[in-house]
Amino acid sequence: MHAPPDPRSLAALEARRLRWHCDPAQFTFNSTDELEDLADILGQQRALEAIRFSVGIRREGYHLYVQGPPGIGKRTVVQQILKQRGAAEAKPSDWCYVNNFGDPQKPLLLQLPAGRGSRLREEMTGLVDDLRTAVPAALQSEEHRTRLQEVEREFESQHERAFKELEDKAEAQGVKLLRTPTGFAMAPLHNGEVVGPEEFEKLTDDEKRRIEQVVAVLQEELRQVIEQVPKWRKEAIDKVKELTRETTRFAIRHLLDRVKQSNSDLPDVLRYLDAVERDVLAHSGELHASEEAPPAILGMPLERRPFLRRYQLNLLVDNAQTAGAPVVYEDHPTYQNLIGRVEHISEMGALVTDFNLIKPGALHRANGGYLIIDMLNLLAQPYAWEGLKRALHSHDIRIESLGQALSLTSTVSLEPQPVPLDIKIVLIGDRLLYYLLFQYDPDFAELFKVGADFDDQIDRNGDNCRLYARLVATLVHREKLRPFDPTGVACVLEHAARLAGDAEKLSIHLRSVVDLVSEADYWASQQGSPQVTESHVERAIDEQIHRADRLRQRVHEEIARGTLLIDTEGAKVGQVNGLSVIDLGNFAFGHPSRVTATVRLGKGDVIDIEREVKLGGAIHSKGVLILGSFLASRYARKHPLSLSASLVFEQSYGMVDGDSASVGELCALASALAEVPLKQSLAITGSVNQHGQVQAIGGVNEKIEGFFDVCAARGLTGEQGVIIPASNVKHLMLRKEVVAAAAAGRFRVYAVDTIDEAVTLLTGMPAGERAEAGDYPPGSVNRLVEDRLVAFSGLRQKFAEPSKSEAQHD
C-alpha cells in the first residue's frame, strides 16, 4: 500500500511542464524560402497507402471512402493523387447519342475514340447544312422538273389514249361517248349525229336492242378503264418518288461518302450513316418541305422543330481536351446531376423531346476515370445514393427521370441506350457516416471495400518538426505569402501542439494552419516586415481569439460582477470550484462552475439533481453513479451506507454532460460528510473510477486558463491554482501568461493520481490511509467521513427499531 499523501509533499508542477517550447535554434534555415515543398501530405502515410491501393486495384467493389475530420485536406490530397494517376492513363472514349430511325423513342449510343466525337459532330453539322441546300436545289433543278413533267405527260397520255380508244370504238358501233361535269355518258348516233330521246323512240325495236347491247358492253369497258386510272396514277406517283430518290441519292451521295471515308475505321458509324442515307431518301420530300414557311394560325406562325435535327449528333461526352483519365468532383450530386437527364422543349403548347435533349451527368463525364463526391451532400439529395448504387451494380448508366425510376409516371419519354460504366468512385465524409453506412447499408460494404482514414495529428519529434517547417514553407509558396523566419515557424509549431490539445502531438488540421499562416502574413504586411516572425504569428492567434471571445468575456464579466457566484479565496464546506468548457465550434473556452453537495440520513442514494430535472447527460449521470459505488466500497464495508446526498452544478441552466467534474463532486461529498471546508482558491477537474483513481479529461488547457482568467481579474494571490489529473500533464500547452504566473509563484497547477491527493490539496489535511487494523488514522479526512457514515448507520438502525408499545401491542 502506498503512503498517504502529505499536503507538504504535493508540490505544484514546474512552469516548464506547463507548456512545450519550440526552440527556433533547432532549425538550420534563415527563411522558409530555403526549404523544399513537401511531396506528400504530412503524417498521412496510412491514408495515402489506402488511396493508392484502391486506385491501383481494378476489381469490382473496391471503390474508396475517404474519412476524417473536415478541414484536414482530404479532398485536395485525393485530387492530387488521382490527377497524377489519371495523367498516366489512356483517354476514355467519347460517347454520342444519335437518332434511332426505326424507333425514335430509343436513341442509339455511339462509342468513339477520344477526340473523334467532336469531329464527327462537326461533320454531321456540315452534312445537315449541305442537305438543307443540296436536296431542295436538286429537287428544284430544271432537269428534275423536266423528268417529273415527262412522268406527268406519260400518265396523261396513257389516260387520254385509253379513253380515245374507247371513244373510237363506241363511234364505230354507232354510240357517242360524252364527257360531262359529273362523269361519262353514252348516246346513240344516226348519220354521225347524236340521237335525242324522241328520235331514239322512232327507231326499230331491233335497233334499240342493238344499241342497248352495245352501250352495256361499252359501259363495262368504260368501268374497266376508269378502274385502271388510280393504278396508273399510283404508278406515276411511284415513278415520281423513285425519280425523287434517284435525284436525292445523286445529290447526297458525295456528301455522305465524304463522311464515310473520314470514319471508315468505325463500323458503328458507317452503319449509322447508311441508316441516315436510307432515311434521307425516304423523307426527301419532307426535306424540301422543311424549308418552306411554317404554318400559321390567325397569322401567328407555329413553332416547330427543324426536320433536319434528326440527323444531328448529340455529343454526350467529349474527351478531346482531357489529359488522361478524367478526375471529376461533383459538388451538387443530385440524382440528375449524377445520372443525367432528358430535357424538354415547348412545341404548340406541349412538352416534347428528342435525342438532342439528352444531357450527361457526372458519371458520364467521369466515365473511364474517377468521380469524387462529398458523402453528406450525396445523402442529402433524394434518391441520389440509390441511383449511384444502381449504376455501380449494373455497370451502366441508364438515363431516366425520377418519375420513371420510381414508377410514379407513365408519360411517354425517351429510353436512351445505357452507357457502359467503368469508373472509380471516391466518397469523402466523416467517420460517423462511414461506420453508420457500413453497419446499416449492406450495399455500402459491398461497393466501398477500401477506407482511407485521415489522422488529425502526428507525434512531436525532431523529424516531424522539421517536416512541419517544410509544410509551412509549402503553404507559403502555394499561397504566395511572405517567408517565415525560424521564430515564426516555431510559433506555428507551438500553436499546432495547442490545437492538438497535447504537448506531445502536432495538429495537421490544414485549414487551421493555412488560416494562421495567411493571417500572420497579413499582420506582417501591416508592419511592413519582409518576413513573418513570432510576433506576427502571436498577433494572428490573439486576433483570432479576440474575434470569437465575446461570450467568454461576458461570462467572466458576470463572474466579476458577482452575478455568477464563484469564490476564489477562503474555504467552504461541501463546495468546490469545478471547471467546464464551452465549445463554440471555432473557439472553446473554460470557466469555473460552483459544485455543491449536501448530505443527510438516508438509504444510500446519491441524487444527481441535474439528472432528476433532465439537464444531465448520460456520461455525467454515469460519473455520479460511480461516486455512490466508491463511497459504498470504501466506507461501508461493515455497515450499510445510510446517507442521502445531493449534487448540483449551481447556476447551471443548460445541459451538463461529461464526467470531468466527478473528482470535484466526490471532494464536495467528502467535505460535506467530514464537515471539513475546501479551499475556494483552487479549482479541480478530472474523472474518478470506482477505486478512487483520477482519470484524464479533455479541454484541460481551456479549463485551467478559464479559472486563471477569473483569478487574474480579481488579483493573483499566489494561493490560487488548479488541480488536474496527472495523466493530463502531457497535454498541457497553456498560454504564456499562465506559464509566467506559475513561474513567478503567483498561480499553481497541481497534478494528482488519486482522490486522496485531491482531498489533501483541497482541505490542507491528510486524507489518511486505512491501517492494517482496518481504521483510518484519527484527524484524517477519511476517518471523519467514515465516522459520519457510521453515525448515520446507527441512526438509521435506531429509527428502524419498533417502539416498546408497538411491540407489546403486537
Describe the structure.
- It contains 28 helices and 32 strands.
- About 1% of the residues have low confidence.
- 37% of the residues are buried.
- It is α/β, with parallel strands linked by helices.
- Helix 6 runs antiparallel to helix 7 and helix 18 crosses helix 19.
- It starts with 44 loop residues before the first helix and ends with a helix.
Tally of contiguous helical segments: 28
Indicate the overall shape. elongated
Total beta strand runs: 32
Q: State the helical fraction.
A: 40-55%
Strand neighbour order, sheet with most strands: 25-26-24-23-28-31-32
Brief account:
The protein is α/β, with parallel strands linked by helices and 810 residues long.
Task: Show the helix and strand layout.
Layout: H1 45-56, E1 64-67, H2 74-87, E2 94-98, E3 108-112, H3 116-139, H4 142-172, E4 175-180, E5 183-190, E6 193-194, H5 197-202, H6 205-262, H7 267-282, H8 284-289, E7 296-297, E8 300-301, E9 314-317, E10 327-330, H9 335-339, E11 341-342, E12 345-347, E13 350-352, E14 358-359, H10 362-366, E15 370-374, H11 375-380, H12 384-394, E16 396-397, H13 402-405, E17 419-420, E18 424-429, H14 431-440, H15 442-447, E19 450-453, E20 457-459, H16 462-479, H17 486-500, E21 505-507, H18 510-526, H19 534-548, H20 550-560, E22 571-573, E23 575-583, E24 588-601, E25 605-608, H21 609-612, H22 618-635, E26 643-649, H23 662-674, E27 677-679, E28 682-684, E29 687-688, E30 694-695, H24 700-714, E31 721-725, H25 736-743, E32 748-752, H26 755-763, H27 781-800, H28 804-809
Parallel strand pairs: 1-18, 1-19, 10-15, 15-18, 23-28, 25-26, 28-31, 31-32
Antiparallel strand pairs: 2-3, 2-9, 4-5, 5-6, 7-8, 11-14, 12-13, 16-17, 20-21, 22-27, 23-24, 24-26, 29-30
